[in-house]
């Protein structure tokens, strides 16, 4: 086994491997562009608003009052021009008639005998007030968030230039695993197959249901890897990362000709994680079998890799103020489960999920240090957990 690389270096290495391998940008429907980054600046295809637009329900009037009522200006239509002394009822969002000098809000209007009177104001949004046709709205590299999609639609787009969503597949290894029923007699329920695909989806991948459990033989591992890689850009395996009697992942990677991007990380828990690349540029992330360690591998390697593949920057760490002391782990980074108030959680062993299920994420205690209560430290969040 090679020397483990530092935890922050592992994140950057995985991200850079993804960024280098990101698919060429293409014009994607909004649903496919969501979660990527703009590969070119977003430009307005019309003025925004495209026409003077009433901001209120009221009366559009022209010239000096009082104004004789005739007709309506409704949203979705081009109204006739207004002559001096005329008023039309106008709806919020309607194009303001040419010749309009002001609008009287409905609640301020006095209407009698076909004539309207009241205080007049420029209660509309001018054409081009938000953007001019051809103006750059957002630079290349901006993450395609839901508000960006809304703005792109408002500005006249149907597609966005972005990097397509990577396909990911989880492959679960282990003869001890059950997919239904309860644990006992040496068998345990598979906790990773039902969990990890949702994390991959939340991290920006198109992830189908997991494959497996795959039998603990080298042949079965190789066959499962080949099957999953046939239609995925990223395969996340679980278990078998060590060198125990039935740990076949390393041998299977050698058999399919994959090369390590990184092999073991100086972090506790989660140390035996790995990332490998196949000859045709696909990725295999080896998640350790202990469930919390597998999640740490998702946080450390898989989420940064997926961000890179989508053209996004390395996901930033949040910060958390610790409510109690957290010990270090010598020369390794310690990822310690904490709740949103910075308190450590019970049941935080690497084979456990009970602490993780209530956690805001992992407080990052760097190598060679311990973190005292009151200190602000990095918080590595788990894809799909929004505490
Ligand atoms: N001699 C050593 N043994 C171990 C070391 C070590 O340094 N020296 N490291 C330990 C650490 S740390 C971890 S993490 C595990 C990693 O093991 P593997 O990735 O090879 O995983 P397995 O041996 O297959 O399983 C470990 C553990 O996790 C359970 N498991 C596996 N898959 C699932 C699943 N889908 N759902 C729920 N639980 C799962 C499995 O039953 C084992 O209990 O190695 C340590 N050993
Ligand atoms: O590091 Mo193992 O990954 O502790 O459970």
From TrEMBL:
EC code(s) of this entry: 2.10.1.1
UniProt domain MoaB/Mog: residue ranges: 169-308
Pathway per the UniProt entry: Cofactor biosynthesis; molybdopterin biosynthesis
UniProtKB keywords: Magnesium, Metal-binding, Molybdenum, Molybdenum cofactor biosynthesis, Transferase
InterPro entries: MoaB/Mog-like_dom_sf (IPR036425), MoaB/Mog_dom (IPR001453), MoeA-like (IPR038987), MoeA_C_domain_IV (IPR005111), MoeA_C_domain_IV_sf (IPR036688), MoeA_linker/N (IPR005110), MoeA_linker/N_sf (IPR036135)
Record's catalysed reaction(s): adenylyl-molybdopterin + molybdate = Mo-molybdopterin + AMP + H(+)
Gene3D superfamilies to which the protein is assigned, alphabetical: MoaB/Mog-like domain, MoeA, C-terminal, domain IV, Molybdopterin biosynthesis moea protein, domain 2, Molybdopterin biosynthesis moea protein, domain 3
Cofactor(s) for this UniProt protein: Mg(2+)
Enzyme class: transferase
Entry keyword rRNA-binding: no
Keyword Cell inner membrane attached: no
Positions in coiled-coil regions: none
Family, similarity comment: Belongs to the MoeA family.
Function: Catalyzes the insertion of molybdate into adenylated molybdopterin with the concomitant release of AMP.
Stated name of the protein: Molybdopterin molybdenumtransferase
């Amino acid at each position: 086994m090679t020397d483990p690389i530092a935890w922050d270096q592992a994140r950057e290495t995985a991200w850079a491997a993804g960024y280098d391998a990101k698919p060429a940008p293409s014009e994607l429907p909004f649903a496919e562009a969501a979660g990527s980054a703009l590969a070119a600046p977003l430009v307005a295809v019309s003025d925004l608003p495209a026409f003077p637009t009433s901001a209120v329900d009221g009366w559009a009037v022209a010239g000096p009052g009082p104004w004789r009522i005739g007709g309506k200006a409704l949203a979705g239509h081009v109204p006739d021009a207004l002559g001096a002394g005329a008023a039309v009822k106008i709806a919020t969002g309607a194009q303001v008639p040419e010749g309009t000098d002001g609008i009287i809000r409905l609640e301020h209007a006095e209407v009698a005998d076909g004539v309207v009177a009241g205080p007049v104001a420029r209660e509309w949004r001018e054409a081009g007030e938000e953007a001019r046709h051809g103006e750059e709205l957002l630079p290349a590299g901006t993450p395609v968030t839901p508000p960006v999609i809304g703005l792109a639609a408002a500005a006249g787009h149907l597609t966005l230039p972005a990097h397509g969503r990577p396909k990911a597949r989880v492959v679960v290894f282990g003869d001890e695993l059950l997919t239904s029923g309860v644990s006992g007699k040496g068998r345990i329920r598979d906790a990773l197959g039902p969990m990890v695909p949702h994390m991959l989806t939340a991290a920006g991948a198109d992830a189908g249901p997991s494959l497996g459990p795959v039998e603990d033989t080298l042949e079965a591992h190789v066959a499962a890897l080949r099957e999953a890689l046939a239609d995925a850009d990223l395969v996340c395996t679980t278990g078998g990362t060590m060198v125990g009697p039935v740990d076949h992942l390393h041998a299977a990677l050698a058999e399919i000709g994959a090369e390590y991007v990184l092999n073991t990380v100086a972090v506790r828990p989660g140390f035996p994680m790995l990332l490998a690349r196949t000859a045709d540029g696909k990725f295999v992330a080896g998640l350790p079998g202990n469930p919390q360690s597998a999640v740490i591998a998702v946080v450390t390697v898989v989420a940064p890799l997926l961000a890179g593949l989508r053209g996004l920057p390395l996901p930033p760490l949040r910060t958390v103020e610790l409510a109690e002391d957290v010990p270090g782990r010598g020369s390794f980074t310690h990822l310690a489960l904490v709740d949103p108030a910075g308190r450590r959680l019970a049941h935080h062993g690497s084979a456990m999920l009970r602490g993780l299920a209530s956690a805001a994420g992992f407080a990052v205690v760097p190598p060679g240090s311990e973190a005292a209560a009151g200190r602000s430290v990095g918080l590595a969040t788990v894809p799909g957990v929004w505490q």
